[in-house]
Amino acid sequence: MYRSHTNGELRLENVNQEVTLSGWVQKVRDKGFMIWVDLRDRYGITQLIFDEERSSKMLMQQAKMLGREFVIQIKGNVIERTSKNPNISTGEIEILVSELTVLNESKVPPFTIEDETDGGDELRMKYRYLDIRRNPVRENLIFRSKVTMEVRNYLSNEGFIDVETPYLIKSTPEGARDFVVPSRMNEGQFYALPQSPQTFKQLLMVGGMDKYFQIVKCFRDEDLRADRQPEFTQIDCEMAFVEQEDILNAFEGLTRHLLKEIKGVEIGDFPRMTYDEAMKIYGNDKPDIRFDMKFRHLTPKSGTYGFSVFDDAELVVGINVKGCATYTRKQIDKLVDWVKRPQIGATGLIWIKFNADGTLSSSVNKFFDADALKYFAEQMKAAPGDLMLVMAGNTDKTRTQLSALRMEMAETLGLRKPDEFAPLWVVDFPLLEWDEETGRYHAMHHPFTSPKPEDISLLDSDPGKVRANAYDMVLNGNEIGGGSIRIFDKKMQSRMFDLLGFTKEEAQNQFGFLMNAFEYGAPPHGGIAFGLDRLVAIMGGQETIRDFIAFPKNNSGRDVMIDAPSNIDKMQLEELNLKLDL
Amino acid sequence: MYRSHTNGELRLENVNQEVTLSGWVQKVRDKGFMIWVDLRDRYGITQLIFDEERSSKMLMQQAKMLGREFVIQIKGNVIERTSKNPNISTGEIEILVSELTVLNESKVPPFTIEDETDGGDELRMKYRYLDIRRNPVRENLIFRSKVTMEVRNYLSNEGFIDVETPYLIKSTPEGARDFVVPSRMNEGQFYALPQSPQTFKQLLMVGGMDKYFQIVKCFRDEDLRADRQPEFTQIDCEMAFVEQEDILNAFEGLTRHLLKEIKGVEIGDFPRMTYDEAMKIYGNDKPDIRFDMKFRHLTPKSGTYGFSVFDDAELVVGINVKGCATYTRKQIDKLVDWVKRPQIGATGLIWIKFNADGTLSSSVNKFFDADALKYFAEQMKAAPGDLMLVMAGNTDKTRTQLSALRMEMAETLGLRKPDEFAPLWVVDFPLLEWDEETGRYHAMHHPFTSPKPEDISLLDSDPGKVRANAYDMVLNGNEIGGGSIRIFDKKMQSRMFDLLGFTKEEAQNQFGFLMNAFEYGAPPHGGIAFGLDRLVAIMGGQETIRDFIAFPKNNSGRDVMIDAPSNIDKMQLEELNLKLDL
What we know:
2 copies of one chain form a homodimer. The first copy, chain A, has helices at 57-64, 121-126, 128-131, 135-157, 198-206, 244-263, 275-282, 308-311, 329-340, 370-379, 395-412, 458-461, 490-499, 504-517, 532-539, 570-575; strands at 18-30, 34-41, 44-51, 71-80, 93-104, 161-162, 180-182, 190-192, 211-219, 231-240, 272-274, 296-297, 315-321, 350-354, 360-362, 387-393, 423-427, 432-435, 440-443, 470-475, 478-485, 525-531, 578-580. Chain A is α+β, with helices and mostly antiparallel strands and 582 residues long. Chain A has 3 domains: 12-104, CATH 2.40.50.140; 141-164 and 195-272 and 423-547, BirA Bifunctional Protein, domain 2 (2-Layer Sandwich); 291-412, GAD-like domain (Gyrase A, domain 2, 2-Layer Sandwich). In chain A, the strands form 5 sheets. The first copy, chain A, has an 8-stranded mixed beta sheet with strand order 6-9-10-22-21-20-17-11, sandwiched between helices. Chain A is globular, with a radius of gyration of 30 Å. Chains A and B meet through strand 1, helix 3, helix 4, strand 6 and strand 7 of A and strand 1, helix 3, helix 4, strand 6 and strand 7 of B.
């Protein structure tokens, strides 16, 4: 037996007990005649004490040999500390050690195993097993485990069945790029790793499973943007005999439960917003509504603005930044530079200050008199002390740019509070989006999403206008989940594939099994999938998913710890009937 | 809203309520003036009634059009049945339908959606979504979900953390064949899909996670034997600061909990048996101990047997089949034929009957007199009425053959009761096994298994004799879990790789990250992995794992429903820098 207690367990009431502890040496303080060792494990830290008067010479010598991260086992007596440490759970006691065994030595770690480490990202990833010893990383992983347990228990209690769907499936060139897996037994053929269990969960509904969930790995071979992973985890759900309202209620329930159980935050009914509203008011479909700063549209007092930048623009829109009229020229210039960065790509930024004394000044004083500015201020609901930031131009671009600025201002002003949670539903997404590059429509959600019945008549006349029974759950400015009511009728599914530019043959070849299934009594159904990595990161008050993944990959899709991917044996390639073609 | 209740929910107390139900048409009984429809969903069956006197003509007509597996929604009034059906939960009521909507029609299914179906295996797999509508298949999947929830909750309550390990890892030619995944971003390189998260869970222990579990998919590209799947699911666990005893206790606890919660079976302490004992007494390392029929070794009364088959044999061993002395010549011939089949490969079978009248007869009367036979009977603890079946020859082969016969006899005699559960631990497995083909040692469990400290001295002199701290949990004749205490010392790990024939370079290349990790304070650790597919099958009283997997693959590794694997686009291959080489 390596231990009688963990290092987070002993209290005053254990005083005088003989205990056995194991763990890592966090710190050694050697005063010569007295040595203190902090012994660490997942559960906490216990202070060990060795002293000349009470410990044998050999034991003192042994203790002096200890280094950081050595793994040791000790036996000893629990005694009350003279100077207590209220910061740790075992701070009232210490262990007078009578026996010390070094279970394993340690080289000096490449970075300090402390909450704030001196290790950079690369080093931490290479030695991830040491990084995980640090409290913040370990606690993130434990937090993730807690969230998934809550998810499973909640859904299970609601009658959802956890069904495992296959990982070796079929490649479908539609959507993102698949990772493929060559089959040795089926020469020249390939499996694909699932981008999501979409068709399988729909087949489970056809199969009468009624309510399905799974926490499942999904795979996408994309050029990785920051904070994307080639493998990621979804909370994947589907229900039969439901309308959109049933789904929204079911998963609003889940999210409310998680926020309450995990974060102690009580949230009432989630606000709902159409896609169109979200785009209009926040310039994007995943607005952060923890703070206001809504888009305000500026109209001229009469006729035209008399300012060509506005007059020529599709959209003139601004945000009102409360209490920032005191921004200096330098601060404002920084903002202008910020929106002009290639990542944002704006041509400029107009500012109007509603000064504390009631006067108005702006970067467009030349074009607008005090009256005109005042009229803008009214439209923007500005008050003395506020700073108005205005952009104008093409609708889509301007929305995207101002939305980015809105988030940047909120970040700067500390309005994105990590312990505040503001979920909402964005509904009525468009069914299709036009892709300039390929010159055809793409499914905005996926090809299985059903159009709103009242919009079906537009499918032929104006496909871009058709709204879908599709919805996203947004939390603190992040899409954490999305789903739709599915098509469950073969004819409609086939029509959808036509619209998306599939030939009949392609559709049959790739999704024939699903359309066939729809001929044998498919029930109405719909579902949702949550991105678990992001959900736990946001619930944990952070936005970097990598910190909530035990062994993440870097931006080139590499695991630098195990050094994967790597070359494989020639024999392996031969068995798979493959040749490298570099 | 598609339904106010499910089809398993309504009772006498709901009489007179207006309800809305949805589901599949299981059966239509049309008496002309009266039509009954069984409406089915996951939760049960509710009887619908239409009759000339109480239903409109149109409704009667609609009902007459219904076919099997149509998806319908009805509104109606709950009424008390005149002839009740005690076999179903809703058997006291029926619904007098007032409104009927066909949500989706169905072609006639290719097999009947009944508990006993007329569909063969191929057809059921091709239309798995229809197969899942059948009660036995659906109940198996729900049972699996229930088992996994119990596992997770139990382990979670015991302080285990659910950590997801990566699926895109590194190929290691050791062990079974990997499935590989070409990397597009890292030209010419490949990921591998994990055969198990073995090294990652060990690194989590190095990282101080202390107790880890995960229910995780694993992959093996093997030529599939019956009832093997290329992707399978493991309950994967690891603990730090443990000895073998700690692990056995922890997972005996889990298994006991599952048997109690899921099957209502209380099991005391699990028996333990060494590998050597198991081989000696049952001829294999996963004995079914629900029944006795132990191996009994026959020795001659004095000197030699005087029967060359026995005298020349390494092993003379038999089983005593209780109460089967009445077997006819024909029955016994069948057994002899059975052991001579190529799958078993025995050259023959000797039988000795202890007749009810106390006389003994045998197939070797020529060689043994009554006294000799009686002496054998004593050794085999046979009583009047018993049939002794004896085999002789090479130790390994004879054990395997007699073990197969023992299982066959138990099957025939109905001793393998699916509702009886007899778990046991088999411990002290050999560390290494000699592989004739490659002429070197292989790790019996895996290369990370630690030798028993007391056997380390044999590592150089007689490696085959070294026992490992490795254990299997066996349930009803199936290995359901196996694990070991791991090596946590770089030197020992390196020595093990030497023994297994790795060059230093290979070892470093493939497992360098693990050996490096061992230099930074690796704690003692060990673990276990359960085969979930098999565990649920056995707990469900069956032995075919395919019936407990939603979408299994066939023996060629194909999913015949979606038709995977399949050919992929030339462009996909090009992007991966690969060429087919058929």
